Target: Ribosomal RNA small subunit methyltransferase G
Amino acid sequence: MEHPVVSDPSPAEAPAVELEPAGAAQVFGDRIALARRFTADLAQYGELLGLIGPLELPRLWSRHVLNSAVVAPYLRDDAQVADVGSGAGLPGLVLAIARPDARLVLIEPMERRCDWLRSEADRLGLDNVEVVRARAEDAVDSGPFDQVTARAVSALRTLIPITAPLVRRGGELLLLKGARVDDEITAASKQISKYRLRDPEVLVLGEGIVPEVTRLFRATVDAAS
Ligand SMILES: C[S@@+](CC[C@H](N)C(=O)[O-])C[C@H]1O[C@@H](n2cnc3c(N)ncnc32)[C@H](O)[C@@H]1O
Model:
């Protein structure tokens, strides 16, 4: 899909896009140019394509791109990774940018979002991305994966049952969560035990480097569920 041509909105209509925070170059290293292109594309087309709301533009880097990118060091070497519910490409495309050694399979049911993900991966020249149009629960045959990520898809109680079956034995769930992650973990205690998640923990990432920290729920899948 070609991205649509849009005329520049007047400054009065469009909230300003956040300037690149100081920590971005440190987080992306030599991949920063691609991250800048992705962020610029998302700023230009994201609202039009229904990927992000207009209120997100002033926090596009902090709340979205860097929030996703700080997870990159937690991908295993050459990992096969599924990102469930990628939407605008968060964290899936961002991780594919930051970690060219990993292979990212983006599992997303909405056709227009899949079109965006495929065209953006092409545009950025990312050859480590595959897009699967499906719900996670119907995509088990695409796996198993070393690691599975998801961000802003649902609470752990419902997210674990659709993500854990995609993970190979000994693989990991890496689920990006908000400030109430501890409450979500308490509410998901049955699912954590049913899907045999070992050593569940919350990592707080990006402190002192990026403007907003990321809370990452990480757990190992002990056995085939
Ligand atoms: C709120 S959006 C979040 C998108 C992106 N991860 C982000 O952080 O901006 C939730 C996404 O999850 C997708 N989704 C919802 N249920 C799903 C399921 N069962 N399997 C895979 N994706 C799902 C939706 O289509 C949507 O793109």
Observations:
- The longest strand covers residues 167-177.
- The chain has eight helices and seven strands.
